[in-house]
Design brief:
The chain has 14 helices and 14 strands. The chain is an alpha/beta fold. Helix 7 links the parallel strand 8 and strand 9. Its cofactor is pyridoxal 5'-phosphate. InterPro entries: Aminotrans_V_dom, PyrdxlP-dep_Trfase, PyrdxlP-dep_Trfase_major, PyrdxlP-dep_Trfase_small, SP_NH2Trfase/AEP_transaminase.
């Protein structure tokens, strides 16, 4: 076998991530590589930090992009804020809450698990009861936008509970950053991590994180060494947080950070609240089209993510065959259900650059065609008109 250059097809990405990357961001990747300690790159780092603070709606000094995907951002939050023997209340209502539990265990801490049904938001009342039963808990961890189910939870209420009990909070915002309302400082969240490949529409591989002053103080006061050298924020701060001279820590992914900077610039130019509104409008149009077709959403309207739509698979429809046909016939990617929802739901992403009227209409037409060809009991010829009616209302 002779190796050759790889030229991927032009897909329309409407799964749970990555989302479509705009040409402007891809072009930024191709700019000349310079050193990660070059004074010009250091200036770019400062601008990236400022733009991330805008995206998070936070003045946190310790705000930076971890040079690894969102899972590393998650681990960075846990290993820096937890020590062996700590008690953590962890909310599990999907796959990614489960991953939080694994992080707690690997830090040698004790996980008090608050479970909610997949597709339902985290119960504030259950968390309050867990704090009453475990007054020693010094941290609360939960997912804002659960990518595996398409449901969001109340960050402000949950963070307020943590503060009432003198605990810090860790919040997974991998799917929410840039796509729905998120106000870190106003809501009192302490440590948050995200990813670049979802609503920021950047290439995968970087994890924005932000830590409150209270979280930074806990990091500085910890007596047990952080179990990860690479993710130790006391070391990383010397590179990303230095006021004048930057201390070498690792070789940053220079070109990927060019791309992140460009995607954050695009978010700033659009305006954060305008981006949130765009995601919501396209979500409403997609839902209208799907329901006109006869499909059902898997999450109650009050708690649905606008950027990640969970759809029930109709009875008798072959999940894998539909997704395969969409990919092979229309170059369209949608996501399968995970865990308890595998084979029961599809996950349709409307994230970042993939959140547009064009994407909604393409998805509805392609899905209707494939389902009709496979003999599914759907209503045809109505979906796009229903979506367009939503757009007409604005």
């Amino acid at each position: 076998m002779t190796s050759s250059s790889f030229f991927p097809p032009q897909r329309t990405l409407m799964g749970p991530g990555p989302s479509d990357v705009p040409a402007r961001v891809l072009a930024a990747l191709s700019r000349p590589t310079i050193g990660h300690l070059d004074p010009l790159f250091v200036s770019l780092m400062d601008d990236i930090k400022s733009l991330l603070q805008y995206a998070f709606q936070s003045d946190n000094a310790l705000t930076l992009p971890v040079s690894a995907p969102g899972s590393a951002g998650m681990e960075a939050c846990f290993v820096n804020l937890l020590s062996p023997g700590d008690t953590v209340i962890v909310c599990s209502n999907g796959v990614f809450g489960g991953r939080m539990i694994e992080n707690v265990k690997r830090c040698g801490a004790n996980a008090v698990v608050v479970e909610d049904e997949w597709g339902k938001p985290v119960s504030v009342d259950k968390v309050a009861a867990a704090f009453e039963r475990h007054p020693e808990a010094n941290l609360l961890a939960f997912v804002h936008a659960e990518t595996s189910t398409g449901v969001y939870s109340d960050v402000a209420a949950l963070c307020a509970l943590a503060k009432q009990h003198n605990a810090l909070s860790i919040v997974d915002t991998v799917t929410s950053l840039g796509g729905m309302e998120l106000r870190v400082d106003a809501w009192g969240a302490d440590a948050l991590y995200s990813g670049t490949q979802k609503c920021l529409s950047c290439v995968p591989g970087i994890s924005p994180v932000t830590f409150s002053p209270a979280a930074v103080e806990r990091i500085k006061q910890r007596k047990h060494p952080v179990q990860s050298w690479f993710l130790d924020m006391q070391l990383v701060m010397g590179y990303w947080g230095g006021e004048s001279k930057r201390a070498y820590h690792h070789t940053a992914p220079v070109n990927a950070l060019y791309a992140l900077h460009e995607s954050l610039l695009m978010l700033k130019e659009e305006g954060l609240e305008a981006a949130w509104a765009r995601h919501q409008l396209n979500h409403q149009a997609l839902v209208a089209g799907l329901e006109a077709m006869g499909l059902e959403m898997a999450v109650d309207a009050a708690h649905r993510l606008p950027q990640l739509n969970s759809v029930r698979i109709p009875e008798g429809v072959d999940d894998a065959a539909v997704r395969s046909a969409l990919l092979n016939e229309f170059d369209l990617e949608i996501g399968a259900g995970l865990g308890a929802l595998a084979g029961k739901t599809w996950r349709i992403g409307l994230m970042g650059h993939s959140s547009s009227a064009r994407h909604v209409l393409i998805c509805l037409a392609a899905l209707e065609s494939v389902l009709h060809d496979q003999g599914a009991k759907i209503r045809t010829g109505l979906a796009q008109a229903a979506a367009k009616a939503i757009y007409a209302k604005g």
